[in-house]
């Protein structure tokens, strides 16, 4: 029972007293929101936090992710002086080893990313790695990287320090208080949290932060909120003291051996991420109480990690084991944590599922969420961790159990850029799934949707190969690109997100959230962005006016819940917003002979006069009545056909049969990616992010700055663009046709780092790797046109400088002549 009576009301209630909950409370208080209550069912840090390994590695896969961890390290470095409590934080450096050439390529790419993020990182030879860490065997290594800013922290001490810092500003922390329910208020079709029910009474509030760790799905369920995470067993041992081990021994990571090692009271803490992981129980099956508890030892399961560790650190063969730790940790379906306001319930925020990087992430994640709570929007790009990235089916317990086992097992696998997860598939299938698979499609998965990536030739096994070089399937993709450019291709794009916005307030809502003017005649499609109040991109969509008070909004497959939530939160009046994604299949018919193909199946006029670019009409094609929208994402004459799901298979067969003599081919998303990059078309989540404005993206043409009335983000966009963009999206083409770019490569101008490749693919038409990059002059803080158009440009390809041509215009058909080609 809580020693102090609970208050009747608080502005914010944080559920969970681990390091994440303590960090959120601390940062809320420092932002001036001091009326905060933290509720912990046990005592602080008693869940997952106390048995975390405490590694603090700074470099992450994205600039935003790296910045978030830097926020953590900056906080940990000063927290002891602020609170008087030790956090155990120590900067000792981090050493990551490579046993294979493939891993060494990854580490060279990692070093280039560090340069892009202005983070110290050094490539080492095996001998230099052994100098940094004399205990390792180095004769079988390819090399290593050294990150001097890496370190470690004591998880329990860190949590106590954060809690003390929060208390000093007025935050109230109540231990031994179990949350049993949430109070909700209904308003129209929205639900808002208004209070927390506990065994000790109720606390009314405006905001609840669900930081309950592996119990977070149970807390979410109290408000009908999906929290897609599942616990898995995580193992490490602590050895007896070892000669040569000292407090400043670097953190060692040997990912090819699945292991990590750090100093622990003169001994070594040895843990890892085994290839075949062990999911634990579902949240509702967690024993009660479960405070400061571990699971049973499993030496047989740990054997693969221990054998690998002994190989790398021979001294372990003669060192005793002091303690075996097997503690459950929360993992998500994509190995990224969950942050943000739940789309199902206003005022309910989630911070959970940290995939064994909770200590490194806690300081930054707590700050990011606190800023989101206080400001109503994130202050940096949190797209990769936003809880809205998952569909509802991702919370399925059976699916989660199989997926997290794979995700944990891949934690230290080589992070191939085209890696496709395998478990729990298929999950969401287009009506053309069987047909495209029978035609040789290699399937990928996006937001649960099965989608053709590329089609294997007849008699060839349809499979992906993973490589840093040009993959075998690139030849298949080239053939699809050439068919699209020279004849016609049919793409299954059913996974598009599709929403109807209807009613008297539909136009007002879309005029407010869209950058473009969507007050167009019925039957017109408009390309537009949706911005936040800081002019950063929140969505990239097309809006088709299908009636006086009806609009069809089409977006990417990955952003369904995000888009629907954004529309609902920013609507004007009370329009109906309906997800019709599953009601319609989409067939893209693209290429210079697309008009000829469709004309064989319809009596409708498709010429430029009757059906110009951006026109959308309901017509009969074959035996199907559908919506045909003349638009393209590949830079060719083409139509997107929106057909009732149950009729998609009939239409698909008719298209392929009618176009056989025209050279029609089925094509996949790998071809779309290459074709759109040749045309310089941007994509949300890569070129278009919450930290990119239309000026930086080069998309001012999609902003109706001259139309009367305001739109969300307009003022901020104009202010940020007044002095010129800080960075600019540009197209690039590799000078060497044998070079293969994947995206993420460091971009250099006159030898100096200036940005990163955001997307890349092999462009069959330009005959080389093609991509888009976000670049800017670090010295002047701008990306002026003259600066972009001059200089000597290169990309760092795993340590090799490769010349590229950079332009603010697309490398293929820059004037758009082919969009109206007959």
UniProtKB/TrEMBL annotation:
Pfam hit, one: GCV_T
Ranges of residues in domain FAD dependent oxidoreductase: 11-372
Domain FAD dependent oxidoreductase central: 376-430
Domain Aminomethyltransferase C-terminal: 727-813
Annotated InterPro entries: FAD-dep_OxRdtase (IPR006076), FAD/NAD-bd_sf (IPR036188), FAO_M (IPR032503), GcvT/YgfZ/DmdA (IPR028896), GcvT/YgfZ_C (IPR029043), GcvT_C (IPR013977), GCVT_N (IPR006222), TrmE/GcvT-like (IPR027266)
The GCVT N-terminal domain, residue ranges: 432-706
SUPFAM superfamilies (alphabetical): Aminomethyltransferase beta-barrel domain, FAD-linked reductases, C-terminal domain, FAD/NAD(P)-binding domain, Folate-binding domain
Family membership: Belongs to the GcvT family.
Protein name as catalogued: FAD-dependent oxidoreductase
Source organism (scientific name): Phycicoccus sonneratiae
Organism lineage string: Bacteria, Bacillati, Actinomycetota, Actinomycetes, Micrococcales
